Amino acid sequence: MFDPIMEQILIIARDAWAFLSGLLIVVALLGGLYYVLQGTAGAAFGGSRMTSMAIIGAVALVILVLFAFLFLPQVGEMLKNFQPKPPF
Amino acid sequence: MSESASLVLEFLRLAWTALAGALLAFALLAGLAQILRVGSAGVMGANLWVWQSVSALLAVVVLALFAFLGIPQIVNALQTALPNGGGCGPINSLGTYASALIGGLAALRMLKAAFTGMLSASIGGASTFSNALIESGEAIFGMLLAGLAVPLAAWFLGTC
């Protein structure tokens, strides 16, 4: 009875997932570009702290994107395995 | 009466399965949205926003685990404590019917509360989140009250 509704919800959720993934990639790329600019500027006028912060930021951004694309699907699989049958 | 109970319970079971699937899908989307928020806040240097998003992400995961691991156990425990019937004849049938329905409705209500709580945690709605937790507590309290009410009604109406 609820299957057609569930199908519609899943279609919307899949679209939203694709949209958010794309947005995350765009934001990460822009953020990476910003950090590269910051690091280059810092290196050009001798701002070592600025450069190191930019490198740390870029690495953190890469880790974050890897976390989103590798960890979240695994969490989803885990939760899918935990999905309970009706307890009544 | 047993046919009617099984029909209603089947409907509730279908609703449970659909709601559990929707909860899983929305939990993953909320997680992705929070990670996007962490990324954008990190780039902007908004520390508070980053920590808010990290906590929201953890809250979503914990709520999903509670919904999938905690709620079935709570419902099972309460259903075993719920008396099936308190006498004979129509009272017994009504008691069995009521306990089955109360269990199903309370389980579904708790799952719905977890779903609402997860949604509000992902968008930062603190009051909706607390309302959802209160609703979950109400469902447990209602089952406990029903556990008292069924034998009391049987005693009042007369047992055999």
What do these coordinates show?
The complex is a heterodimer of chains A (88) and B (160). Helices cover 88% and strands 0% of the residues of chain A. Chain A is mainly alpha-helical. Chain A has a domain at 27-80. Chain A starts with a helix and ends in a 6-residue tail after the last helix. The relative contact order of chain A is 0.08. The mean pLDDT of chain A is 90. Chain B is 90% helix and 0% strand. Chain B is mainly alpha-helical. Chain B has one domain (2-157). Chain B is elongated. The longest helix of chain B has 43 residues, at 2-44. The model of chain B has no long low-confidence stretch (mean pLDDT 82). At the A-B interface, helix 1 and helix 2 of A face helix 1, helix 2 and helix 3 of B.
Brief rundown of the structure:
The complex is a heterodimer of chains A (88) and B (160). Chain A is an all-alpha fold and 88 residues long. Chain A contains 2 helices and no strands.
Integer average pLDDT of chain B: 82
What's the main sheet of chain A like? none
Shape call of chain A: elongated
Major beta-sheet overview of chain B:
none
What value does the Rg of chain B take, in angstroms? 20 Å
Measured by DSSP, the beta-strand proportion of chain A falls in under 5%
What characteristic shape of chain B results from the CA principal axes? Answer: elongated
Number of strands of chain B: 0
Run of helices and strands of chain A: HH
Number of helices of chain B: 4
Runs of chain B in which pLDDT lies below 50 for 5 or more consecutive residues are none
Structural class of chain B: mainly alpha
Give the count of helical stretches of chain A: 2
Order of helices and strands of chain B: HHHH
Q: What is the number of beta strands of chain A?
A: 0
What is the radius of gyration of chain A computed over CA atoms, rounded to a whole number of angstroms?
Answer: 20 Å
Structural class of chain A: mainly alpha
What's the overall average pLDDT of chain A, rounded? 90
Kindly state the percentage of residues in helix of chain A.
over 70%
CA-to-CA gap between the ends of chain A?
18 Å
